[in-house]
Amino acid sequence: MGTPSITERKYIRWVETPGLAEEPTSTIVLTSHDSHFVDVRILKPTEVDEPDLPDDGGPKKRLEWAFGGQSRTEGPREENGQQKPAHAVWEHWVDSNSDDPPTDEGDMWARPNGDVLERGKMIKPGTGLVTTYEELWRDLEVEVVGQEKTCTSVVLRAQDDGKGLRGMVIRVGGWCQGILKVGNDVTIERWQWNPRSGTALDDPFFLFEKSRQGDWERVARLGSRFVPCAVTFNLALITDKTIVEVGDAKWEVIECYHWSR
Description:
By secondary structure, this protein is mostly beta strands. Helix content is 0%, strand content 54%.
């Protein structure tokens, strides 16, 4: 357990392939108090007429990878007289690219400026091969949103093995991401709180009283199914174990956590 976080990847480098570190995606990871996470990686546009982030359901080729699950971390330690870095394992409970993903784990070194350098092995998208990688991560600020009094983290999860359905939605502060996979069909969404926005949204679960302090805006969507990110925006309607039934799925609130900065 730990403080919920919003983490942005700054670059990736595939160690076994010559080349410079680069960031071909917009990658955000939201991690909850109980270490549930949703990691969404959307490829940057390659055509001049493409938006920075797709928000109308396609093209699905822009989704490089999305997955959610639960992680565990072991801190830095001394082993056989040697100092070992922190080590993390991310269990992919739902994965856009695989129903049986291999282990995703890496060693992590904190840098003086607060960034974290991660090195490990994972499937390289587009190849299907387990490859050594190096990534640099930076934490983003967790905001108190609108008229809420504290920072907030909410986790929803859906599962129906008869339909081949799994989904996870996580909100941390002013960010929310969700993934829903039914068979091989994947839908992802990313939302962000905009303190300057005053635009109402056409959403059956957008039930909170609109604040002059801002509004939630969907900034990315790929796929056609309903992902109930907006349920996390109205804290008055949800507690742990709240059930939300919509579309293909029955979603359960498995975490609702508040903390002060």
